[in-house]
Amino acid sequence: MFHFSNIVRTKGDPKIVAGGPSLKQPADQLARALGWFSIGLGVVELFAPRRVTHTLGMEGRETLVRAFGVREILAGIMSLSVDKNAGLWARVGGDGLDAAALMSGLTSDNPKKGNIALALLMVGGIAVLDYRAAQDTKPRRPPRDARRKLYPNRSGFPKGIESVGTAARQIAGHVGHNEVKQGDERRVP
Questions:
Q1: Exposed, middle or buried by CB within 10 Å (0-12, 13-18, 19+), for 130?
Q2: Coil, strand or helix: which one is 103?
Q3: Which residues, other chains included, contact 66 with Cβ-Cβ below 8 Å and sequence gap of 6+?
Q4: Which one, of 58, 95, 64, lies nearest residue 79 by Cα?
Q5: 133-151 pLDDT, tens digit each
Q6: What does the buried/exposed string (b/e) look like for 67-81 if buried means 16 or more CB atoms within 10 Å of the residue's CB?
Q7: Is 29 in contact with 79 (CB distance < 8 Å)?
């Protein structure tokens, strides 16, 4: 990947010689891979629905396949975004819809039942990966019974709020607007 970034750099920019190890966690890498897979599958479903329905022996359902393609692309984009967990759960729900649509094609008069069974097997495997990635990327929250740390006595200033007033008076004194000696308790307007 760093070779590509060298191509798009301007003349004065330094070249990247080697990339370092990824800082992404394995769950984030899986979410990213599933997001790209979802976009790729969605593009196929959106632009080649007749081929998909012919392969499965489910001719006449091209509109449904196109709708599933749009759903896959949107779920993929969400999986690649900051809120990847929502995209992964959308993929899990989509896997359920895919399985239901495929089950409707398992009729006795469909000569391509084997293709549907294989597609169901693949959807099941991907569903397991989607569920795992959604579980692993969910936001971490403390348990309900955990003690919360409250800091009502903290002002945010290491030396206290009083020292801030003194420092402000000193700065104002240096500027010459309002000469106040350190320790004087009058407020600076």
A1: buried
A2: helix
A3: 45, 46, 49
A4: 95
A5: 999 988 777 777 777 777 7
A6: ebbebbbbbbebbbe
A7: no
In sequence order, which residues have a C-beta less than 8 Å from that of residue 14 and are 6 or more positions away? none
- Counting every residue, how long is the chain? 189
End-to-end CA distance of the chain: 57
32: closest CA among 122, 141, 136, 123?
A: 136
Q: Which residue is it, tokens 């579980």?
A: 135
pLDDT tens per residue across span 2-48? 456 666 667 777 776 666 666 678 888 999 999 999 999 999 999 99
Q: Which tokens go with 71?
A: 């759903």
Amino acid at 159: K
Q: Within a 10 A sphere around the Cβ of 169, how many other Cβ atoms? A: 21
Q: How far is CA 157 from CA 153, 165, 166, 169, 187, in A?
A: 11, 11, 13, 16, 18
Judge whether 95 and 123 are in contact, CB under 8 Å: yes
The model scores a pTM over 0.90 = no
Q: Residue 112 and residue 94: Cα distance in Å, rounded?
A: 23
Nearest CA to 34 out of 161, 166, 127 is that of 127
CA gap 35, 129 in Å, rounded: 12
Compute the distance between CA of residue 185 and CA of residue 182 in angstroms, rounded to an integer: 9
